[in-house]
Please model this.
Amino acid sequence: MSGLLLWAGCVRDYSFEDRVRAAHAGGFDQTSLFPADVRRAERDGMTRGELRELFRAAGVSVEVIDPYTKWLPTWNPGPDITAEEISFADFDERTIFDMAHFFGAGVISLNEFFGERVEIEAAAACFASLCDRAATEDLRVALEPMPFSDVCDLTTAWAIVEHADRDNGGLTLDAWHFYRRGAELDLLRTVPSELIFSIQLNDAPLLPDGPVKEESMHRRLIPGAGELDLTSFIQATGFADGPALIGPEIFSDVEWRRPAEELGRELGAATREVLAAAAHST
Model:
């Protein structure tokens, strides 16, 4: 397995310099970028080249651009979607591809962001077409199910990926999303590990702490700090045998108050601990 990936959500509100400090403190040599991160850097006077060099100089590779949302036939934010959410998701395919190339990322993670109705066959056709265009540019595409999306669970996401049947089309799996929709461990064990391109680790109480979307964006726990069965999830992904990029992804108002290095150090230690437990559990 390659090194650990610090998903951008863990350090969403930190400066880019502090993100690097968090990565170093936790022993992460990979990260993801939100497209909105690039827009934010440029708005704040940092060029893309300067942002890329910041990560390169620190020895932290950008492996994933996450998320891409405009891959389905329609893209219609509903009345409950905020202007901030629209801005976060409003990037077209060419922009996403160009970001991946510029920062050296090989994976684009996508989702259905607004809860629009999704038909499996139509979604699979869109996914296959996107994979074909990505393949010409040596990129992989990973679909992430989210419980507040219409691609809400592994059953739906895997049906789309399996029906599309593209070598460069796979899944991003998030432990929090997986358990909040109802764990599908038996199905997960049947998914080829080589088609799980990336894994996001986090934790939570067994029962939701408020509305699911709100909990997801504000109160996730560090891996191992909650009650989710991370050992079973990790083992079912077959991560040890596959190429998956793996690391923590938490969105937490509480954790974001901590110094970057302190948070990074705990995320690294906690992630390694749950991975070791899964590897050694019988």
Summary: The beta strands are 5-6, 30-33, 61-68, 107-110, 140-143, 169-174, 196-201, 245-248.
